[in-house]
C-alpha cells in the first residue's frame, strides 16, 4: 500500500471536461495572437517596455494559478505553480540557444527575429502538447516509464554539468544539411519571407533554414522539459497549462535577457541541479513521495542562488583593478 501511495501521490485525477480544455486553448491562442500582433508592433521595444511585458506575462500566469488554486484546491494549485516555475527556468536555456541560432544565421533586425521567435514558440507549444499526451499515456500504461524519464533527466543534468550542451552548432544539424542539399537557397534575406523569387524562379531564403533548426531544437527541449514536469504532476491539464504560460511572452524575455547572456555564467549548473533533483525524485517514486512544497522550494532556491552567484562572479570580473 505504501508503494502504491507513493507512486500515485502526484496524480490528482482531476475531472477536466473537454469544454475546460477548449477554454484553456482559447486563452492560449488569444495570448499568442496578442503577443504576436501587439507586442513591439511597428517599433523596436526598449528595455523598459520589455520589462513591463515580461512582468505582465508572469502576472497573467500567476493569476491563472490563483484561479486554478481556488477552483481545484491547494494541491493542484501548488503543482501548477511548481510546474510553471520549472518550465520558466528551463525556458531560460531555450532563450540562450535561440540567441546562438539567430546569431549564427545573422537574422536581421528585431522585427524578423521576433517573428521567428513567435512561430518557434507556437511550434514548441504544439510539439509539447503531443509529447504531453504521449507521456501521460505511457505513464498510465507502463509504470517503468517513471524510471525511464528519471534516467533521461539525470543524463541531461550530467551533460549540463559537464557543459556538453553549452556549445550549439547549427551547422551540424542533420535536418539543415539535408535542406541545403535538396533546396535551392539564396544567401540574402528578403524581409520575413521564407521564399522569394530570383530570376523568375521560386527559391528559399535563409529564414527557412532558421525555422528548420529552431523546430528541431524545440523537439530536443520538449524531450527534456516534459519528463521533468511529469515528476511534479501527472495531470495533463496542469502540465500543458504550465508549459503554455511559461512559453507565452518568451519573446519579450528574450529581448530583455539576450544582452545579458554573459552574466548568467552559472545557469547551466543551476539547471543541472534542478534536473538532477527532479530525476532523483522520479527514481524514488516507489520509495518516497517528495512533497510538492519541497520540489517548489528546491527549484526556487536553486534559481535564486544561480542568479546571485552569477551576478557576483560577473561583477567581480567586470570591476577594473
Mean pLDDT: 82
Please report the distance between the alpha carbons of the first and last residues.
63 Å
Net shape: globular
Major β-sheet, in short?
2 strands, antiparallel
Whole-number count of domains: 1
The low-confidence parts are: 1-9
Range of helix content: over 70%
Structural class call reads mainly alpha
Write down the secondary-structure element order.
HHHHHHHEEHHHHH
How many individual helices?
A: 12
How much β-strand is present in the residues? under 5%
Q: Quick one: how many beta strands?
A: 2
- Radius of gyration from the CA trace? 21 Å
Strand order of the largest sheet: 1-2
Main attributes?
321 residues; mainly alpha; two-stranded antiparallel sheet
Task: Describe the fold and architecture.
It is built from 12 helices and 2 strands; from the N terminus they run H-H-H-H-H-H-H-E-E-H-H-H-H-H. The relative contact order is 0.17. The chain has a two-stranded antiparallel sheet with strand order 1-2. The chain is globular, with a radius of gyration of 21 Å. A hairpin with a 2-residue loop joins strand 1 and strand 2 (201-204). It has one domain. It is mainly alpha-helical. Helix 7 packs antiparallel against helix 8 and helix 11 (267-283) packs antiparallel against helix 12 (292-318). Residues 1-9 have low confidence and may be disordered.
